[in-house]
Amino acid sequence: MTADAANAAAPSTRLGRYEILGRVGKGGMAEVLLAREAGSLDRWVAIKRVHPELARHKMFVQMLLDEARLAARIAHPSVAQVLELGEADGVPYIVMEYLHGQPLSEVIHRSCEGGAPDLDLMARVVADAAEGVHAAHELRDADGKKLGLVHRDVSPQNVFVTYDGAVKVVDFGIAKARGRATLTEPGTVKGKYSYMSPEQARGGTLDRRSDVYSLGLVLYEATTGVQVFEGYGIGVLARVALSEIDPPARHRRGYPPALQQVVMRALEARVEDRFQTAREMAQELERFVVGRQALTDPASVASMMATLFPDRRGDGPGGRVASDPSLDRPPTTTTVSARVRPRSARWRTPLLVACIATIIGCVVAVGMIVSGQLTRRGALRSRAIGDPPAALVPARERPVEQWPDTVEKAAVASRATASGPASTGPAADPGAPATPSEPLAASGSARESHEPPSNRSSSSPGSVRSERVAARASEVRAQADSNGVGTLDVRSEPWSMVWVDGRAVQPTPMVGLPLSAGPHVVRLVTDDGRSRRLRIGISAGRATPIDVRF
Question: What is the rounded average pLDDT for all residues in the chain?
Answer without folding.
Answer: 72
